[in-house]
Structure to design on (395 residues):
DNA sequence: TCTGGGGTCCTAGGACCC
DNA sequence: TCTGGGGTCCTAGGACCC
């Protein structure tokens, strides 16, 4: 059986753990730059606040608490939840910041086991989770949604498929988004049950092979396996909206240098080298092939700055920019002109180690800027309760 | 007059996920 | 006036190979 453990209102729940007064209030968490709503507490949902709503819609609502996103806190809390879940099965796939699949043998008391998991996560971390259990990952995803209305746990076996799927709308299904859902509706398919009863060839034609796999899973045939090892990324992006419009080239250079440095950190973290860099703004992009694959921040900063100089137009107002890395390798293909050995890698290791160890100020490159007027707005952010000695929760 | 059959790689765009 | 930041996979079509 596959279990999907899904944290309820995850970002809002993280805030409530350290500030229980928030439990009584409509609470929303804002995206970077405080632009839009990316998480809502139950009370905020009850008021009709939608995911993705722009923040300004609620600016004058004194009853709604709005917090800037505190991703440092959320990812630390996520790790605690995942470590707790891993105690219950060695076969665990961390699917996203707030979801994990577990795979285990079916058992008569599976319902009780799921309740125990839920209880333990709540007690050890403070985070409420919903758990769905089913013979396939796609059905487990559905079950976890039903769990939210069934006391937190829902165990789902093959003999209930028809009955349940008859009441399941297409867009609730993992892998079927709004586009495909609308397309199928126009063909007269409204429920998941109608979909799994359709003709195989027809389904493949409408949904492609990915959609067909989803249908097999809905029928109770496992297709998607648990992937326990996090795959290495094939591309890495770092992009941000600016806190204020940027019109000066020097500031735009600072920003992309800083994005390149963050992307390079992620690249070294998965021990890859990149041979492709792209710089982009709202109005265009500039791609560079890198002959000697690298993860050395200064080289990437240089390329990013060159790229943005080519994109820059005097008089234009820039609201966001980003850097993307791609075409990764693990080994450098040497050439006669590049020294085989250098201390570049060691320098990056030391820098990464210092930055991992200390909260702030971080070691950074001068090119990333000091004052950074382009930084995203984060006007109402909670402390880093669990990761900064200066911001520990006070009791 | 009549003209095959089998591949690969790359890219852009679309769809989806959190 | 104000609206994030990441990722993945698949497909079709073009270009090319023998």
């Amino acid at each position: 059986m596959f279990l999907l453990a899904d944290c309820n209102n995850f970002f809002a729940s993280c805030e409530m753990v350290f500030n229980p007064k928030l439990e009584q209030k409509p609470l929303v968490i804002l995206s970077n730059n405080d632009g839009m709503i990316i998480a809502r507490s139950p009370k905020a949902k009850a008021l009709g606040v939608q995911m993705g709503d722009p923040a300004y819609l609620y600016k004058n609502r004194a009853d709604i608490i709005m917090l800037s996103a505190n991703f440092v806190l959320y990812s630390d809390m996520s790790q605690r939840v995942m470590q707790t879940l891993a105690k219950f099965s060695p076969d665990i796939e961390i699917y996203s910041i707030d979801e994990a699949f577990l795979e285990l043998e079916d058992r008569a008391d599976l319902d009780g086991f799921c309740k125990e998991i839920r209880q333990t996560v709540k007690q050890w971390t403070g985070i409420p989770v919903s758990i769905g259990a089913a013979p396939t990952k796609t059905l487990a995803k559905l079950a976890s949604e039903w769990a939210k209305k069934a006391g937190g746990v829902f165990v789902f076996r093959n003999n209930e498929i028809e009955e349940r799927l008859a009441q399941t709308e297409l867009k609730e299904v993992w892998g079927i988004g709004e586009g495909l859902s609308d397309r199928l509706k126009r063909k007269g398919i409204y429920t998941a049950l109608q979909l799994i009863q359709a003709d195989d060839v027809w389904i493949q034609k409408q949904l492609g092979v990915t959609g067909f796999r989803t249908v097999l899973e809905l029928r109770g045939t496992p297709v998607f396996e648990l992937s326990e090892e996090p795959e290495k990324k094939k591309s890495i992006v770092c992009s941000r909206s600016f806190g204020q419009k940027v019109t000066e080239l020097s500031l735009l250079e600072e920003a992309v240098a800083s994005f390149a440095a963050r992307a390079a950190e992620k690249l070294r973290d998965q021990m890859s080298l990149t041979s492709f860099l792209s710089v982009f703004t709202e109005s265009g992009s500039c791609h560079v092939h890198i002959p000697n694959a690298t993860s050395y921040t200064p080289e990437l900063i240089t390329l990013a700055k060159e790229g943005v100089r080519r994109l820059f137009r005097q008089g234009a107002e820039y609201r966001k920019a980003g850097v993307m890395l791609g075409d990764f390798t693990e080994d450098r293909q040497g050439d006669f002109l590049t020294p085989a050995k250098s201390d570049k890698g060691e320098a990056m290791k030391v820098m990464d180690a210092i930055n991992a160890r200390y909260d702030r100020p971080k070691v950074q490159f001068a090119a990333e800027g000091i004052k950074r007027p382009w930084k995203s707005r984060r006007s109402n952010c909670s402390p880093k309760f669990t990761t900064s000695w200066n911001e520990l929760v006070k009791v």
